[in-house]
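re: ur question from earlier - yeah i can do the single chain one, its not a big deal. heres the input i used so u can compare w yours
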Amino acid sequence: MTEIFTSWKTWPDAEKPLAAALPGETVAVLEEAVTFAVLQHGDQLRPTGVPYLEHLLEALEIAVRGAAVRDPDVLVAIVLHDVVEDTPCTCAEIAERFGAHVAELVAWVTKPDVAAPQDKAGVAAGQGEPGLVAGQDKAAVKAAVKAAYLRALAGAPPQAVLVKLADRVSNVQELHRMPVDFQRRYHRETVEHIVPLAATSPWFARWFAGWRDDWRALESPE
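and the output i got, formated as tokens:
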């Protein structure tokens, strides 16, 4: 059975194990990043209905406890990886607060914006997905944007790939909580676009191999 990382649900859950694994200055900037992310995401929830912070801390736990990532910029980017995509926050704000390199990593894992800032504020307030530009077909635009984003990840720098891999492990490690149609679509997308990114990261490669074994039934013809 593939290892699951769900023990860090709040900052106090994460702080002690982080302090045991990382230098004090890294833990301090991670606490700052968590505080910033909580402020930006507001009342946003995961699709399963839990606070969005749980996803960010899961991804951080995966990187630190699982993959033994120690690069401070990568770890901070993991905490902040959705703030530009899901809230009105900009990469410029991240660069000012956490440095240009962190902002660059977040930009790599951010899908291109098809929503107005006020729509993204609604997402952070727990009001669902952002709206799209008037006159455009929602499904077609979202599909095209996501396809281009996934293809571009193949050219991402290694540190940005680590951010994306930690994010995706968090999202798929409890895929059984999602509707069956979503499971099939997300599994297929992960196998096609994300698993290949893990080829140069041994821990992630092993984790995804185990995960694929657990979900092998979804790779059979429907």
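Residues 24-41 form the longest helix (18 residues). not sure if urs matches, ping me
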